Amino acid sequence: MVKRNIVITGGAGFIGSHVVRLFVNKYPEYNIINLDKLTYAGNLANLKDVEDKPNYKFVRMDICDFEAFYKLMQEERIDGIIHLAAESHVDRSIKDPFTFAQTNVMGTLALLQAAKLYWESLPEKYEGKRFYHISTDEVYGALVMNHPGGIEPPFTTAASSGGHHLAYGDDFFYETTKYNPHSPYSASKASSDHFVRAYHDTYGMPTIVTNCSNNYGPYQFPEKLIPLFINNIRHRKPLPVYGRGENVRDWLFVEDHARAIDLIFHNGKIAETYNIGGFNEWKNIDIIKVVINTVDRLLGRKEDEDMDLITYVTDRLGHDARYAIDSTKLQKELGWEPSLQFEEGIEKTVRWYLDNQGWMDQVTSGEYQRYYEGMYSK
Ligand code: NAD
Ligand code: DAU
Predict the structure, then answer these.
(1) Whole-structure pTM over 0.90, yes or no?
(2) What is the C-alpha separation between 182 and 141, in angstroms, rounded?
(3) From ligand 2's centre to the CA of 215, what distance in Å?
């Protein structure tokens, strides 16, 4: 059994908590350190079920704190870093780009530099080490939507082929697609991706970058489309649809992303990029209708009862028209496939939010929100 000491940054957030849970349960021989600043998006309640496991430890730290992270690397003899910590919400980046540059760019750079200094100080240097950076498909910019009605897709996966699955354009994001970010969020993620690759090319650090499409599932902070809308439907509040609801996103169940991260961390090739996505494109308005129908059915309400909550509002500035990932490389080279059909994933997700109203009430409570607003205004 190989023993490893792994830091997962952003482990108290949405995707990070699923990655921490997977690693802690699957690899009892590893030491898993969840490093998180606990911003408004980080919530230790997301990890209640693993917090007492002997191979799990939580460390509250800001990734921008180079000194503290360097010390942690030495003390814990870290040989693997899976980096998810970030400011992740596009709308917040439009209002407050500085925080995004600070965390996503400078924070990533602090981790890289601390890892470099520590690993280069060891006799074996970079042997057996890994810096795995989790990025987004948004760095590629926006794809053209030249089939607004949708066409049969050129690819399917076990997960996408069963249910709704259309492509809304001829092109996809490939690992070779040129970066063209539009929002301050995606610009900051693109910059951090470049730094990670630069640490491989300049210093020989064993890095990997993955770019994933939109995730959905349990524990997502309700500022993002799906959990926000589930909660609003439950409470019969308006559903603010940006523009005409025609923008297309490619949706992946979060546990499938976590499985891909596990596979790539262990078997991915150094210096490579892998795109992760489910070939599962949806127009926002269509996904919203599925969410309304699912919530209404599970709550025993009449069909279509809550459709009139749909409220068209001013569009997001610079709103990217379409994202669609081609994940053929990951499927062919490492044998990954999404496991869930979208309808199944949405049903599971809606059920989780309805069954975990306590979690939702906590993160949407005035006290929780005020605490973080206070932190932000400092
Ligand atoms: P999230 O906002 O739910 O969680 C982010 C986590 O990072 C939180 O726990 C937060 O406390 C922590 N964090 C923020 N700033 C920090 C700092 N300075 N120091 C330490 N911790 C800090 O985000 P998410 O949706 O889980 O996304 C995780 C990663 O995956 C991000 O890097 C994001 O860019 C990427 N990603 C997200 C999606 C998606 O659909 N959500 C898709 C592709 C890629
Ligand atoms: O593509 C991956 C990205 O997906 C990640 O890198 C980001 O971290 C993650 O937040 C997500 O970005 P999006 O901007 O696509 O996600 P969001 O849930 O904010 O919005 C999804 C779509 O729904 C988008 O087209 C905007 C629209 N929307 C969103 C909200 C919150 C609305 O119409 N109304 C809303 O209230």
Answers:
(1) yes
(2) 6
(3) 10
